[in-house]
Amino acid sequence: MDFKPANNIQDLQYFGEFGGVNPSISDSSTYTFLSAKTMFDTFEGNADGCYLYSRHSSPSNLYLGEALAAMEGTETANVTASGMGAITGVILELCKANDHIVCSRTIYGGTYAFLKNFTPGFGIATSFVDITNLGLVEAAINEHTKVLYCESVSNPLLEVADIKALAALAKKYNLKLVVDNTFSPLSITPQILGADIVIHSLTKFINGSSDTVGGVVCGTQDFINALRDVNTGACMLLGSTMDTLRAASVLKNLRTLHIRIQQHSKNAMYLAEKFESIGLRTVYPGLPSHPSHAIFKSMLNDEYGYGGMLTVDVGSLDKANELMEMMQNKNLGYLAVSLGFYKTLFSAPGSSTSSEIPEEEQKKMGLSDGLIRFSIGLDADIERTHTVMVDCMRAVGVL
Questions:
Q1: Strand runs (DSSP E) across 9-112, as ranges?
Q2: DSSP sequence for 328-381
């Protein structure tokens, strides 16, 4: 593709108020006015460049939002206090009582819990389907459907959504296609492929240092304005506002995202190929054996690779736990949830990040007890990492 997401980030020029190469941080919750009329106009959204109260907006949050919108190719963006703050705000902005959502069956556990357990209390129903089966997706759409929701690369099974095909379905039925792109920033640009709204958990790869929780909604100016509306906006009224100091921190880290993603992808591809070659049940979108490898390749921004996430099925939860504990003891990574850190992180999602999904549903979607989800780190010597990982696998009887 010709779209250059990292260039769009790098080309943004922000100066601090004293000429600093980083924009100044607006460490204020409220802002003063020289006239009462300007305050009124700002509250009504009619005074560009003026700030009222940091739950509405702040310079630091708008800088970060502008950079993320440039990365995703959308008109603008709204940053939130967490990834779930972005997800819940979007869903509640788009759907009201008696509305319906068609959603991927393999999805982040928090998203699943929100759609399965929380939104029915507001009269919003969700059908969970195999997002890779377009016939099932279309069959699930009914007259009340408003949203088609998926992850570019699903958590934790790494199923790949055919965003172009899903966008065509959304257009056919006048739906909004919402794509969570947390697992594949830079590698995939959903808006270019037809998505209406793109969501990220900034906590993960985009920030990259596991010290901040945050989220973002990237979309049209009209939709972001609606989210921020003081009378009806879901993000405004639910209060999922990102702290300005954290926004400034994420913006600094965002500028190195392209370098980090390249290394995450390089290391993950190396390990995936090695693991598969010795007979491990390995899932990685960059492997030709992945069922949707060709689809991912058709969507790929080539220079960023297939991402840093892979899974290995070692057969049982006991084996998975024993292996992860040994890998941590050998300093190969951390037994921890989340992803995008400089160290490799590993967890058994069935008993952690996907534990909100009932066991019978986990079995239906193919989430086994022995599945280990790896967020591959930035190791400079991935060959050594691989050698020691294999030694650990032999020691616990996986190989």
A1: 76-80, 100-104
A2: HHTTS-EE-S----SS-EEE-GGGTTTTTS-HHHHHHHT--TTEEEEE----S-
| Rounded Cα distance, 281 and 343, in Å | 23
Q: How far apart are CA 59 and CA 49, in angstroms?
A: 9
Radius of gyration, CA atoms only, the chain: 21
Sequence-distant (≥ 6) Cβ neighbours of residue 30 within 8 angstroms: 52, 53, 54
Peptide bond before 156: cis, by omega within 30 degrees of 0? Answer: yes
CA nearest to 282, candidates 386, 132, 126: 386
CB 218 within 8 A of CB 197: yes
Q: Tell me: the pLDDT tens digits for 9-65?
A: 888 888 888 888 888 888 888 888 778 877 777 776 665 666 777 888 888 999 999
What distance in Å separates the CA atoms of residue 219 and residue 291, rounded to the nearest whole number?
Answer: 30
CA distance 44 to 349: 45
CATH of 5-254, one of 3.40.50.1820, 3.40.640.10, 3.40.190.290, 3.40.50.10140: 3.40.640.10
pLDDT in tens, 237-270: 999 999 999 999 999 999 999 999 999 999 999 9
β-bridge pairing 309-313 and 371-375: antiparallel
Q: In angstroms, rounded to a whole number, what is the distance separating the alpha carbons of residues 224 and 392?
A: 48
Taking the C-alpha atoms of residue 178 and residue 198, their distance in angstroms, rounded to an integer, is 6
> Amino acid identity of 273?
E
Tokens matching residue 232:
């009806």
What secondary structure letter does DSSP report for 118? Answer: I
pTM above 0.85, yes or no: yes
Q: CATH classification of 258-395, choosing from 3.90.850.10, 3.40.50.10680, 3.50.50.60, 3.90.1150.10?
A: 3.90.1150.10
